[in-house]
Each structure stands twice: as C-alpha cells, then as structure tokens.
Amino acid sequence: MGKYISAVFLFFIFLGIYYAGSFTKIPFADCVGFILNAEKGGWTSVATATSHFLYINTVVLIKTLTRFNAIEASRLLVIISGAATVSIIFLTVKSITKTEWIALTSAFIFGFSFSFWRNAEIVEVYTYNSLWVSLFFFSMVKTFSENKRNYIIFSSLFLGISLWVHIQNILLIPALLVFLFYFRQQKKYFYSSLFLFAVLFSSLFILNISQGYPINSPYSSDQGNWVEDSLKKDTIQYVKDFFISFVYLFYNFNFFIFFGITGAILLYRTNRKMFYVFAAGSVCVYGFSTFYAVSDNYVFFIPFNIIFALSIGYGLSSARYSSFGRYSWTCLFIPLAYVLCFHIVLSTERGKEIHNFKAYKGGLNYYLLPWMNNNVGILEFTIDKKQAPEPIHWMTASALEYIELLKSKGYTEEEIKKL
C-alpha cells in the first residue's frame, strides 16, 4: 500500500483543485445536453458517436444511487475521473522512470494542462474518457517496463471499455495492434486479449443493429457531418489547422514541450518497441484532431496530451537533465502562466475585440482560464432571451428543453437561473 501513497495524495490534491474551480452555473457548449439526458433519468440504450453510452449511463447510475440531481452527479463523475487520471499518469511515469519526483512533476504538468483542466471543470465526457485511456496506456507500460503479462489482457479491456465512452478511441486501435504484435509469442495472453477486445468492439455494432440502427451508427451521428466536412477544407485551411495544433500544444505544456520531444527521442533510442506503440497512437490521434472540422477540436487532442505527458516524464529521466529536479517545483506556477497570458491578450486591441464578442459566455475568461467558477450560465442566458453574435441555437434548444423539464418539477425561473 505504501507505494500508492503519493498517487492517493495526488488524487485528493487534484480533487480539491478541480472541485474548487468547477462551474458555478451550467456552461455553454454541450454541457446542458449531457445534463438534460441525465436529468431525464432513463438509461441510454444506443451507442452512437454522440450518445456516449457509458458516460451517460454512469451519471444516471450515480444519480440513482446518491439521489443527487443531474448537475451534481455529473460534477462528481467529472472531477473524480479527472483526479484519478492524474494519479494514473503518476503511476505510469513512475513505472517507466522509477523516479518519484519525475512522476510527480509529470502528473502536475498534465493535471494543470489547459485542455484537461478545463474539461475537469465542466460537464463533459473527456475526463471520464481520459481515465479509461490512461488505464490503457498504464497497462501497456506495465507490460513493457515490468514484464507483467496479465496487463496485456488489461490493455484490451480498458481500450475496449473506452470505446463505449467515446468512439474517438478507435484511433488508438493501431497502438493496441502494434502492442499485441510485439507480444504475439505470448499466445495465451495474445489471443485472450485479441478476443476480449473484439467482443467489446463488436458489441457496439450488435447493440445498435439489434435496435434497427445502421451498421455505421457507432461512429456516425445525425447531428452533423464533421468527418466529411474535414475532408472539404482547402489547402490554406489545412496549413492553418496544423499551426493551430502547435498553439494548443504550447498552451497546454509551455516550455515543458522541450522535455516531451526529448522523451520521444530518448524512448526511440532505448525502447524502440514501446516507441512504435505510442507513435502509432500519437500520429492517429494528433492527425485526426488537427483537421477535425468542429469548433472545439482542442478536446480531441487530450489522449495525445496524455502520451505527451508520459513523454515529458521520460525526457526528464534523461541523465543530462537530472539537475532539473531542483527546479521541478516550477510546474506549480503553470496556473499563473494562464493568468499572465489572459492579461497580456486582454491588453491588446484584438484581445479586447474577442473579449467583447464572446462576452455572452464569459469572454476571454472562457477561452484562456481553465477554471470555471463564477462563470456565465446558459440557463440564465436563455431565460432572459439574450442574443449571441453567433449561432448557438443547438445549445439553447437543449437549454429550453431542460428549463421546461425543471419547471415541470416545480422549479421557478429565478431558481433555474442559479443553476
């Protein structure tokens, strides 16, 4: 038990951080849609690209067991998943490097990374998804670094489960296949792992087809044609998307990017098999996320960001950077970097324009600061019939439905505005 004390310690630290910064009112984007589905209380029975079968049903289960409302049940799942993921990052890096301070530093860097931190403060699927993805990576690393063959089966189990949370994780199947290829001589574990994953993956299709849905339903949605639109961009837009992806990477990891790149190079030199496994996952996830035609594509980088955080840890383990240990505490100042960036951008004319344009949902606070306490709520916005300078009808439609549902349960408009 003693070897897990630091992981437990980290869990409670980030549980407190994420709870303190959690949303005060239901934010914009997809948040109200998730809460609406959970508030209805029915189990989701179909697994499409946007239904997030396991996430919604887990929230409903928490709501049923605890008697929390959908908002608090969602908050509980999100912040616990977020804090648990940080602990898994710590355990994974420690398994690779065998060094406590490096594992702690990597965990803090990832826990404070903007994309992950932001999603730990709102109602979204991505921290819960990250938990299963991080367990998948943890299992593969344990197999490589500690020669524990039972983790071969766990790797397929966790990736298979993650598909029921978010179908984006099919992009990690190449990583699993490369991983299994390297352990193909371990026939007992190889075939058991392959069979388990095949069952979990195929069950998505069986569930939907049994209810009359088309065979492509697990990876499609009637809410949009985002994949098709991603293939219709012009060359200039693809180039812009590529450079924007680097901006995302820098905002998440700042100068620690250097150690991430160093870690990848070091891993290639010292453990080429593990390198190719994570390279397969990285290329697929990063490539898809970069060009995916949705406004919030930054969230799709999170599985890649987990890999990059592990790479940062491996980079820090290099003998030539051993002296950095005395400066590892600098990762604790990452939140201040967000505040500094916010004020720098807000001091510019372009920054002020964006802040005013996006004021309906919090301005630059919404885009540059990861914490969401004292945020602008979509329910109050909708009830007061405020207007946004850009199309958000898909958000307000769910908000209106949720408002009517709450009114049927006896809530007044003034009470709803506070949610």
From TrEMBL:
Keyword DNA damage among record annotations: no
Domain of life of the native organism: Bacteria
Keywords from the named record: Membrane, Transmembrane, Transmembrane helix
Transmembrane stretches, start-end: 7-29, 41-62, 74-93, 99-117, 126-145, 151-182, 189-209, 242-268, 275-294, 300-317, 329-346
Name of the protein this chain belongs to: DUF2723 domain-containing protein
Organism of derivation: Chryseobacterium gallinarum
Taxonomic path: Bacteria, Pseudomonadati, Bacteroidota, Flavobacteriia, Flavobacteriales
